[in-house]
């Protein structure tokens, strides 16, 4: 893209190059910390770096490219989904009230991630936002595991690539009765702690 004679394309190419370089630097830091034993918590790439079957493992370049891709795909999908979440809550005043009540009354003053996970209505709002407005609603390829898989009257041999289309699946009336009526609209009972 940096060779296309339009400034916007060139700038996009330069930005992409910076992200690739950041991925390279990030993986270099992780590899260095991993090898020196200074990493105290597990991280996504630790399984790849610690793989015993080096023949099927990722190369350093492949890990850098994966890290860069996660940075690109993770930022836009997260920000887009959060935008839809805020939009959905703002458009449903009753949902906003329930959410505010739950956060104000169910979270301790010094809360942690484990406290947030226990918020039933917040979890409901997040799940519904991901169902209806998930930013990655395209095809999601999966490989059928060893031994194959039987579903309904169909047998899929191992190694077959199966695609699900989240946008259509999440709006299928056979799976979600009245799929376009979000449960964000529904009354969810939130009980105060005894």
Automatic annotation (TrEMBL):
Pfam (any one): p450
Domain of life: Eukaryota
Protein's UniProt keywords contain GTP-binding: no
Keyword annotations of the record: Oxidoreductase
InterPro entries: Cyt_P450, Cyt_P450_sf, Cytochrome_P450_monoxygenase
Family: Belongs to the cytochrome P450 family.
The protein's name in its UniProt record: Cytochrome P450
Originating species: Paecilomyces lecythidis
């Amino acid at each position: 893209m940096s060779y296309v004679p339009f400034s916007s394309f060139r700038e996009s190419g330069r930005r992409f190059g910076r992200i690739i370089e950041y991925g390279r630097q990030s993986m270099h830091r992780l590899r260095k910390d991993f090898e020196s034993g200074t990493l105290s918590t597990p991280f996504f790439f630790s399984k790849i770096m610690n793989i015993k079957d080096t023949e099927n493992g990722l190369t350093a370049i492949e890990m850098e490219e994966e890290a860069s891709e996660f940075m690109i795909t993770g930022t836009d999908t997260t920000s887009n989904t959060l935008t839809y979440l805020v939009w959905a809550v703002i458009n449903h005043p009753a949902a906003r009230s329930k959410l505010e009540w739950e956060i104000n009354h169910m979270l301790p003053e010094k809360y942690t991630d484990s406290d947030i996970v226990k918020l039933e209505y917040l979890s409901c709002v997040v799940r519904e936002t991901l169902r209806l407005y998930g930013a990655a609603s395209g095809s999601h390829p999966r490989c059928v595991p060893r031994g194959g898989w039987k579903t309904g009257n169909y047998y899929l041999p191992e190694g077959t690539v199966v695609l699900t289309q989240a946008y259509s699946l999440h709006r299928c009336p056979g799976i979600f009765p009245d799929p376009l009526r979000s449960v964000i609209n529904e009354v969810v009972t939130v009980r105060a702690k005894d």
